[in-house]
Amino acid sequence: MKTIIQQLTEAFGPSGFETEVTELIKSMIEEHVDELGADVLGNLIAVKKGSQDGKKIMFAAHTDEIGLVVTHIDDKGFLRFGNVGGVGISTLVGNRVRFAGGAVGAIYQEKGSWKDLTLDKLYIDIGAESKEEALKKVKVGEFGIFHREFEDLGNRLIAKSMDDRVGCAVLVEALKTIKNPKNTLYFVFTAQEEVGLRGARTAAYGIEPDLGIALDVTLTGDMPEARRMDVSLGKGAAIKVKDSSLIAHPKVKDLLVSLAEEKQIPYQMEVLDAGGTDAGAIHLTKAGVPSGAISIPTRYVHSPSEMVDIRDVKACVDLVVALADKDLAAI
Ligand code: CO
Ligand code: ZN
Hints:
Layout: H1 2-9, H2 19-29, E1 35-38, E2 44-48, E3 56-62, E4 67-73, E5 78-84, E6 96-99, E7 104-109, E8 122-125, H3 131-137, E9 143-146, E10 151-152, E11 156-159, H4 162-177, E12 184-190, H5 198-207, E13 211-218, E14 237-242, H6 250-263, E15 267-271, H7 279-282, E16 291-297, E17 306-309, H8 310-324
Parallel strand pairs: 3-12, 3-13, 13-16, 14-15
Antiparallel strand pairs: 1-2, 2-12, 4-5, 4-9, 5-8, 6-7, 6-9, 7-8, 10-11, 11-17, 14-16
Helix pairs in contact: 1-4, 4-8, 6-8
This protein binds cobalt (II) ion and zinc ion.
Cobalt (II) ion is lined by residues 163, 194, 302.
């Protein structure tokens, strides 16, 4: 499982350019699914057929990661850039970027911009000595990601883009485990979540699920002087109550809690005061879809060093596997 997380987090996939990630996932799940397809926005949709009386469950984990885009190249070859999704400005200075075409650069700031740091005070140095040289390496409009390796610290793992490759890893692992499920399962690896839950919206419209479940990271409250939040690393899968995109359907939330109790899967309740997930788009599809989320507790979300606990990741896999076989007549 750690290998899957490493491969997925080290792949390149800013919003709108998720192909490297979806191709990788395809190679991991091909032999475990009944159908595999893609759509216009770049969602990868894997289907595992259930029995006749089962329902349609859509699981969603997004393949895209936050990143940046080149907006201007100056005469000396320095780049200016805009954000793709919610990048944390305080995490950028001194970090490295890798662009679609392979160029790597360092991000730094203009003199005197420590206070009130904004994106337009930052630049990227790709080692070019002139605009001409820079143009041989990157183009205006080219997308980039944070350039960071995966680290295995034992139970805890650090990587860029745990948000949401760790959610993708949960679905990949669940797919490999589930045999002959009761419900028909749509495992959707969604595009463009970080820029507004876009892939999940079109995928849900096409699938018309009876139940929608997002697998995504959530914040924790267990670091020094952290926000007040009752989610910690190592305490299990987080079952969402609400975030700013969704109030989990009470029946879905209760179902996940009772499943966790029944199967003795460690869990905690998640009340997230900012941020959203794909479930926010899924539940508003057509006449509405009962939806909820299983979240992976993650420290330092939207920084190049996002940290998860492998025990929580496994608890999330167990919960997905349990739901696949659950009688959903009551939903
Ligand atoms: Co995110
Ligand atoms: Zn996410």
